[in-house]
Design goal:
The complex is a heterodimer of chains A (about 280) and B (about 350). By secondary structure, chain A is mainly α. Chain A has helices at about 1-35, 50-60, 60-95, 100-110, 115-130, 135-160, 165-170, 175-205, 210-215, 220-230, 235-260, 270-275. Chain A is globular, with a radius of gyration of 24 Å. Chain B is an alpha+beta fold and about 350 residues long. Helix content of chain B is about 25%, strand content about 35%. Chain B is globular. The mean pLDDT of chain B is about 90. The chains are: A mainly alpha (about 280), B alpha+beta (about 350).
């Protein structure tokens, strides 16, 4: 009897921890979500429903420009970082030999520099050496620095499992190096590339600390939100946060459904190939 | 010669993985590269495939110097130990891969894949992915992918090492059959002497990057050129000793005297190998009078039943001897006293450096 009692107790303790963890994670988001649909947005309990906040958000052209700029910044930095990191990872795994550890350390070192410092350093470098004005290009370059380090780590964990001898097999059977890459290597490693791209996109899209110094007068969503704070937390900010969250949730939901129905598999994992 | 290796060497840092290898392989020959792991046999195979560049030396295939050609322009195919099927491609797509690279028309690709599916009995598996196949089926697909493009040569890198014994023996027969049907050279890397002996026309024994001997399989087994080959191919009893005063016998270190087939310089230090199956057994009571010239009084320590034959572990002084006898002969029991005897002609004799005395 004692055994079953402690088992039941353990089960409830686990359930409670689970619930508390999820509450911790999602209460702020739920609160903002509720606030964005409420007339009494600062304390929406109970909410007085309205869609005015969204109306004001979409009517404000500054937010639209900022969204578009953030999109360009995110896509640009992610593309640049993913491309460079893919080349760096391939180099590390195939050609670095015994110095791989040294190269890897240098590649991930930007992670240990405060983003504010990367921002200031990039501002000075881009201004003095590259003679770039404060604009999106300058911000993309600066964001790509720490995005590169993240992308490298994400890809390295994926590519670590890739069996490079598959490339040997492809070449022996008549595929040129380029053909080998597109026929064999890329189809097997693209989930790693995609993962790196998505994460670095989100990082650059949301970044304020680095972009702040390099954007000049170009508005992005984080910088506009930051600027708006000076005049108090306006309802538009609630709506903005909820809109972004909704997009993310819809994206994840779509991926989940696709995987559940088997429409998309998101890559072949070599470790599962050994099943038989 | 259809494939020629001319003074091929490969250096890694300060180690010569392949060291001045020169050999020629005929148009429809089955050649095995036999050696222990780390002997450089796989490196040699990868040099022929073009996956490694030789540090020095030249590789010729069908009269053409391919030393500087990348693997995809050499027209050879390979079967890997780990199969290395493309995991994101079905069996059909894996088999069609070499043909697509040859830019053959779709109809011919279908036809050729059907041919290879037929000869390897892969029917019904075309739509499966490699991870949905058993080890034996994966191995067949790997072999099929090697044969389907009708390559100039098929290189096999321990293709059977990951299969269980029964399947291995089945595949040995099959591989050999496809080789003679296609009439292209197969170069087969293995550390398994049984595989090498059962399939090859000729065997090259590789040791420390060098070819120790390259000869017909019967020569490799029956007349091993060096002590290393005698040790590595077949199973043998080894003795060390010194040639006696008359030059006709050897006093071994374990205290017995063995008669030699031919006289040698007295006082010469030598090593002797006697294959397990050359050691015959007779009861110690003398009821069997067919003893050879050399007799060793032993006690049966253990009997290991192998089916068609039995392995006897014999206590001889303070060492052990191994004898392998067919079951059709008289059986001995554990603890029984026996005479192990052998003909002087069955002794393989080498200097201490492993070469046959001149």
């Amino acid at each position: 009897m004692r055994g079953t009692f402690s088992k039941i107790l353990g089960k409830y303790a686990l359930l409670a921890t689970l619930i508390i963890s999820y509450l911790f994670l999602y209460l702020p988001i739920l609160h903002i979500g509720l606030g964005s649909f409420a007339r009494n947005h600062t304390f929406p309990y109970p909410p007085r429903w309205t869609l005015d906040t969204f109306g004001r958000l979409f009517a404000n052209s500054l937010y639209q420009t900022a969204f578009f700029n953030s999109l360009v910044l995110g896509l640009g930095a992610a593309a640049l970082a993913t491309l460079l990191a893919a080349a760096a990872t391939l180099g590390l795994m195939r050609h670095a030999g015994r110095r791989a550890g040294l190269y890897l350390t240098l590649f991930v070192a930007p992670l240990f520099v405060a983003e504010v410092l990367i921002g200031i350093a990039s501002l000075i470098f881009n201004g003095l050496v590259l003679e770039l004005q404060g604009n999106l290009v300058s911000a993309i370059l600066a964001n790509a620095v720490h995005c590169f380090s993240y992308a490298l780590l994400i890809m390295a964990t994926q590519l670590y499992r890739y069996d490079w001898r598959l490339d040997d097999a492809a070449m022996v059977f008549g595929a040129s190096p380029a053909r080998t890459f597109f026929e064999v290597t890329l189809p097997l490693i693209w989930p790693g590339l995609l993962g790196a791209f998505v994460v670095t996109f989100i990082m650059a899209f949301n970044n304020l600390e680095i972009s702040f110094y390099l954007l000049g007068a170009t508005p992005t969503l984080p910088s506009v939100a930051w600027g708006a704070l000076r005049y108090g937390v306006k309802p538009e900010l609630y709506a903005l946060a909820t809109a972004v969250n909704l997009v993310v949730i819809l994206g994840l939901g779509l991926m989940f459904v696709l995987m559940l129905t088997g429409t998309a598999t998101f890559g072949h994992r070599p470790e599962r190939e050994r099943a038989v | 010669m259809y494939i020629t290796l001319d003074g091929v060497s490969r250096q890694y840092d300060s180690v010569w993985a392949v060291d001045r290898v020169t050999m020629g392989i005929g148009k429809s020959e089955f050649v095995s590269l036999l050696g222990p792991s780390g002997s450089g046999k796989t490196t040699l195979l990868r040099i022929i495939a073009g996956l490694e560049k030789p540090t020095t030396g030249r590789v010729l295939i069908d009269g053409e110097d391919v030393t500087d050609l990348p693997p995809h322009r050499r027209g050879v195919a390979m079967v890997f130990q780990e199969f290395l099927l493309f995991p994101h491609r079905t069996v059909f797509e894996n088999l069609a891969f070499p043909l697509r690279m040859l830019k053959l028309p779709a109809a011919e690709i279908t036809e050729r894949v059907a041919w290879v599916v037929g000869i390897l009995s892969l029917g019904g598996l075309e739509k499966r992915y490699p991870n949905q196949l058993s080890g034996g089926q994966q191995q067949r697909v790997a072999l099929g992918r090697g044969l389907v493009g009708r390559p100039k040569a098929l290189l096999l890198d321990e293709p059977l090492a990951n299969l269980d014994r029964e399947l291995r023996q089945e595949m040995e027969v099959e591989i050999r059959r496809h080789q003679s049907a296609l009439g292209i050279p197969f170069i087969y890397v293995t550390h398994n002497q049984e595989e090498a002996l059962s399939m090859s026309d000729r065997i090259a024994v590789v040791r420390k990057g060098r070819i120790e001997d390259f000869a017909a399989r019967t020569d490799i087994y029956d007349r091993p050129k060096t002590a290393f080959i005698a040790q590595f191919v077949g199973r043998s009893n080894r003795f060390e000793g010194t040639v006696g005063a008359g030059g006709r016998s050897v006093a071994t270190r374990c205290g017995t005297t063995l008669a030699l087939p031919a006289p040698l310089d007295p006082a010469r230090a030598v090593q002797l190998f006697i294959k397990n199956e050359k050691l015959r057994l007779a009861p110690a009571d003398g009821t069997d009078a067919s003893h050879g010239a050399n007799r060793l009084a032993c006690t049966v320590k253990d009997v290991i039943l192998r089916g068609a034959y039995a392995d006897y572990i014999l206590a001889f002084g303070d060492r052990e001897l191994n004898a392998s006898r067919p079951r059709s002969e008289r059986a001995f029991l554990s603890g029984e006293a026996v005479i192990a005897h052998l003909n002087p002609e069955d002794i393989d004799l080498y200097d201490t450096d492993g070469e046959r005395p001149s």
